Amino acid sequence: MSEFYSILTEYGVEKVAAALMDGVPVNLATMVVGDEDRNPTGTETSLLHQVAEVQIRRVSINPSCPSEIIADAVIPGNVGGFWIREIGLKDEDGNLFALGRYPATYKPEVEEGAVKDVCVRMVLRVTNAERAIILYADGIIEWADLDLKNLSAAGQAKFDAKADLESPEFTGVPKAPTPDTEANDTRLATTAFVKSGLAKLVNSAPGALDTLNELAEAIGSDPNFATTVANALAAKANIESPDLTGTPTAPTAPTATNNSQIATTAFARKAAREIASEIGAGIHDIVPVGTIIENMFPDVPEGYLPAWQPTVHYSRETYATLFQKLRDNGWITNASGDGSTTFLIPDFRGMFRRCTGGNAAAVGVSQAGAFASHTHVQDSHNHSQNSHNHSQNAHQHWVGGLRCGNNGAGGVSGGRNDGTLYGVATDGATASNNATTASNNAATAVNQSTGGVETRPVNFAVYLFIKY
Q1: Collapsing DSSP states into helix, strand and coil, what is residue 434?
Q2: Beta carbons of 265 and 426 less than 8 angstroms apart
């Protein structure tokens, strides 16, 4: 035998035998490693000195040899500081299934300055012809014939009670599933299958149809009976996957029906209406209380109250959630409604909505209309008049006088001496020029009010509803 080898333990032999006889799977779970050295005999139930146990990373079939089952495990780099001299496989119950002598390999630990993962592989090969197990570790292969004589008495009895898969010879009263009466294949025919077939042929026929003559009369002595029946069947639908034409009908099932019964159009429409109603109810449930929606029509949706009737009293008990939210968020007070059992919805008529924050008022507080501060400016201007003169030509004013005597005597010089009374002209004067410039009067225009009763953008009115 090679220096390094692996064998099944006695427990492993029993497990393999059970797997071969009863089809009970062997589930390998962990790989254990130890630092003691010995030659395994198969009687072992544990390692001499176990230093690590890791999960089997993978169990697979060797693609190049389908009879080989490969078990791989990895000892991680952070586990170390020991030698590996023996390895073992444990099943899901924690029992030692196989044991092997392994070439001495040192697994360092982190503190030693060298970190590496160590991969350990064990391969299990089963050959059906010889019922033998082949185990090898790290590429070293050993053959270990599976001697059925080493099985326990109970295991041997179970094995002897099994029949071969190929050409089995049964004893006692062997049984098999009874095929359906229409079966025509390689399945075993039981006595029940045979009896049923014979009964259909003769024994179950009524007295008037248990002879060929009676059968001929029953079919009207029609030599083309098969064709006649085939033509009649052609007008019938198959039970399996029928391909119906025309306008087939069926009974309408209750809407709660949930099985393979045919669904008519009436069933589908009623079910669709119920589903739509359920969906609507579901949407209603997820809309938060206090949500405001708009509609072009005054019909109140289910779950909502009109938000344009501020004088209507609503029950605080019936609409408790809406009342509490309106009160707690400042939209109404405890005095709303009758002050005890009813409340009023805030008056939203004629108001525009805006998001809270910025220049908006607090939530629940109405805000009066206003213009942003602004200035109207008009340039000052002058009213002027050009400078102009007012003038008058020279003229005389006459004064009556008496001139007597001769020229120059006792009278005015230059007067006449004919004793005649004449008027004397006084010296005329030229009117002075009075040029005047009109004063400038600068004035600012006066703003005059204009417009309607409110400030608003182009709009249209809708009906508002509030979720309760």
Answers
A1: coil
A2: no
